[in-house]
């Protein structure tokens, strides 16, 4: 149904895609796999009309097409759910779902009631128990991702591109999404599924295509390859599995709040289902709500994020695009924004930026490359660099590997481990149980805003943790 032939796309100083060929068949889930920066999102943006300047051609139902906008692609039957959420924060769920395709009555006025009814049906189908009149700004990232999925379902598209659709939703929501994907397959739809979660791909995908450095490395049936085989094709080499570091704690209490304690050199994992209050707990410690905590045994009144930063606390937020970056600014400005001396001293800016580009292996064409043009993994590294530049005692990471490939994940795990070894106290919130178990020294579980259990990571199992994460009411 959809064929891409010899697609090449260049940005200033970077060839994002080179002679890429792709065939997509109806009634199939086509997995597109590769590291951050491999060209996956760029290719999908070409297919969906986001980018209209490229070499090569696209055939849709045996006819050559060239979409000048996403609206043209949508009208032809191609929809995309972006990894970086594409919602208007000050509009309601209904207004976002129908944006650009509003329903009007016989007088040419907006039929708000009809749109609300249809939006409510879509939300019910996706098991999102929220009023369709809620503003997007009041929703958590995972809930916003479900709204993105609802937008694509409204279009009744022939081709649905899902770019990391499960990166911020819970296990139960993933199960609902997979049921919907199976329905769409039975209707003869094409699903293009981009994900770094290989276990998901083996559950839902029929076919795979691997991209590396902007080129297609291999395509084939999912039944004919293993997870290790996919990883090797993605990165061109073997990836070392995460190995639990030796836990060396001096048990010096570094942070104490009403809910948790954190020791020097410890990696504390925090797990909970969506709505458990994990993000809110980190935000409270960081001063988004006035709070009295103890740091190194001394009481500290945290009234704002500035107080938290001065006390040696840093927070890498869940939504890097909305809360972590100045997306239109360049790499240097983003890295140096938290350190005033570097921000006003050009030489210090250069030194600091070079240091983090090299130490975190950030892939960028220059200091002046706009952050919004980087891959998700490199954007996440810049958020990390920005906060590491403040030399924090306590580093809080909210979903630090969301939407990041296995190689970049491995690099971030190694960094977290090294920072803890150097004496930093680290809190990691993650929706991925395997991640929590792999990198944590100690694990706390949250449900309905409260800590429900605490485990030594060496003794914990997935079933033990999940049991405590499920609300009892």
Characteristic terms for this protein:
single chain, alpha/beta, 18 helices, 20 strands
Largest sheet: 6 strands, mixed
Strand order of the largest sheet: 6-7-8-3-9-10
How many β-strand runs? 20
Distance between the termini: 48 Å
The Rg value, from CA coordinates, equals 23 Å
Low-confidence stretches: none
What percent strand? 15-25%
Could you tell me the mean pLDDT? 86
Q: Quaternary status of these chains? A: single chain
Helix content: 25-40%
Based on secondary structure, the structural category is alpha/beta
**Judging from the principal axes of the Cα atoms, what is the shape?**
globular
- Count of helices? 18
Summarize, please.
The protein contains 18 helices and 20 strands. With 473 residues, it is of the alpha/beta class.
Mind sketching the topology for me?
Elements: E1 2-11, E2 14-24, E3 28-33, H1 40-47, E4 55-60, E5 63-65, H2 70-76, E6 78-81, H3 93-97, H4 112-125, H5 141-155, E7 159-163, H6 171-186, E8 190-194, H7 198-204, E9 207-212, E10 215-221, H8 227-235, E11 253-256, E12 261-263, E13 267-272, H9 278-285, E14 291-295, E15 298-302, H10 305-310, E16 313-316, H11 320-324, H12 331-336, H13 340-344, H14 346-359, H15 376-388, E17 394-398, H16 406-421, E18 425-429, H17 433-439, E19 442-447, E20 450-456, H18 462-469
Please explain how this structure is put together:
The chain is built from 18 helices and 20 strands. By secondary structure, the protein is an alpha/beta fold. A 6-stranded mixed sheet has the order 6-7-8-3-9-10, sandwiched between helices. It has a 6-stranded mixed sheet with strand order 16-17-18-13-19-20, with helices on both faces. A hairpin with a 2-residue loop joins strand 19 and strand 20. The chain is globular, with a radius of gyration of 23 Å. The model has no long low-confidence stretch (mean pLDDT 86).
């Amino acid at each position: 149904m959809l064929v891409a032939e010899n697609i090449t796309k260049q940005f200033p100083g970077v060839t994002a895609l080179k002679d890429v060929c792709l065939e997509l068949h109806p009634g199939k889930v086509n997995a597109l796999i590769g590291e951050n920066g491999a060209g996956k999102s760029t290719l999908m943006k070409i297919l969906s009309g986001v980018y209209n300047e490229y070499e090569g051609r696209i055939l849709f139902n045996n006819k050559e097409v060239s979409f000048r906008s996403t609206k043209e692609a949508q009208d032809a039957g191609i929809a995309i759910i972006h990894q970086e959420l594409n919602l208007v924060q000050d509009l309601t769920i209904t207004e976002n779902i129908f944006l650009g395709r509003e329903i009007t009555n016989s007088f040419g006025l907006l039929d708000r009631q009809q749109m609300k009814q249809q939006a409510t049906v879509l939300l019910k189908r996706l098991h999102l128990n929220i009023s369709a009149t809620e503003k997007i700004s009041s929703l958590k990232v995972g809930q916003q991702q479900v709204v993105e999925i609802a937008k694509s379902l409204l279009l009744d598209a022939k081709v649905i591109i899902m770019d990391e659709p499960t990166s911020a939703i819970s296990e139960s929501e993933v199960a609902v999404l997979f049921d919907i994907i199976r329905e769409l397959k039975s209707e003869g739809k094409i699903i293009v599924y981009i994900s770094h979660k290989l276990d998901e791909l083996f559950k839902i995908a029929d076919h795979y295509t691997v991209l590396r450095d902007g080129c297609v490395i291999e395509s084939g049936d999912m039944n004919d390859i293993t997870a290790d085989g996919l990883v090797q094709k993605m990165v061109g080499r073997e990836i070392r599995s995460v190995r639990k570091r030796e836990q060396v704690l001096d048990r010096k209490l570094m942070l104490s709040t009403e809910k948790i304690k954190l020791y020097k050199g410890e990696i504390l994992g925090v797990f909970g289902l969506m709505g458990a209050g994990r993000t809110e707990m980190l935000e409270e410690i960081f001063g988004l709500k006035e709070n009295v905590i103890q740091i190194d045994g001394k009481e500290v009144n945290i009234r704002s994020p500035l107080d938290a930063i001065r006390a040696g606390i840093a927070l890498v937020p869940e939504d890097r695009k909305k809360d972590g970056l100045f997306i239109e600014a360049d790499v240097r400005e983003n890295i140096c924004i938290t350190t005033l001396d570097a921000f006003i001293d050009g030489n210090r800016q250069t030194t600091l930026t070079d240091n983090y580009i090299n130490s975190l292996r950030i892939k960028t064409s220059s200091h002046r490359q706009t952050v919004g043009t980087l891959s998700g993994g490199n954007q996440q590294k810049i958020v990390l660099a920005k906060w590491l530049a403040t030399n924090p005692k306590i580093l809080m990471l909210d979903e630090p590997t969301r939407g990041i490939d296995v190689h970049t994940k491995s690099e971030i795990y190694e960094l977290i481990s090294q920072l803890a070894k150097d004496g930093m106290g680290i809190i990691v919130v993650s929706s991925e149980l395997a991640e929590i178990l792999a990198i944590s020294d100690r694990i706390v579980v949250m449900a309905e805003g409260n800590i429900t259990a605490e485990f030594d990571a060496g003794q914990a199992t997935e079933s033990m943790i999940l049991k405590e994460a499920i609300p009892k009411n």
